[in-house]
Amino acid sequence: MASQGVLQNGSACGCKGIRSCLICENANTKLNFTANETPKVSQEFTYNPSSRRAFRCVNGIEESFPFPGVFLWENFVTEEEERELVSKMDENIWRESQSGRRKQVGVFFKDFGPKVNFKKRRVRVGGFCGLPSISEKLVARMSREPQLNGFQPVEQCNLDYNPQRGSAIDPHLDDSWLWGERLVTINLLSDTILTMSLDEGCGQFDQGEVKVYVHLSRRSLVALYGEARHQWKHAIHRKDIRSRRVCTTFRELSAEFLPGGEQAEMGTQLLNIALTFRGVPL
What is the DSSP letter of 12? Predict the structure, then answer.
């Protein structure tokens, strides 16, 4: 069993395995594995949403390559909507999660709602009762954007990042058996950087890892699809959390759960429940 760090006030982190945060590192229950690792040599680029290219400047010479699969929507929510969203989230229980994050899952609850086993590829409805009501107008707004046309989420996950906990999320690819083509996240309370990475590089930049930094402003929406969704890992690093950050991520169903797919009946059932917008977090 993985040990947990404990603060002087008695609160524990939710880190397991090799994951760590400042709570368990400061409590000496875990080593900061990344602190003693030799940093990878990476080729670093910044995403330009206007040109949809990743670029860098080396010795005064600009280099770039196309970077498809990222859609940014500045000021997706207003300041008033941001306050309302975070206030509603804070009324509910935040549960300790990995790497210093806290989590609320508004549809696929860990202990209440549809039960999902990604390894065995099994899903059942359980006590699933829908997306939260406050998200109804946000989903309607998203669907009016051509890039998000037809987006019907069946899962919403709220995450709370705080620099005092050393919050982060490691580079990863989201599941593609249950979750569909587009991942949509609303970034609240502070700016941050979404780091996209490809271990083996790409194109002419194939000498080791390539990183592309996507700047996310406060109250913006980011959607990942295509290559950015399925080939490039995404992460939020500890150094890029400078003040409290809350985000909410929406996921749609994969083709397997849509009309014509092997599990279309289950998909229809989940969608019908999700879009009642009657859900509450556990």
Answer: B
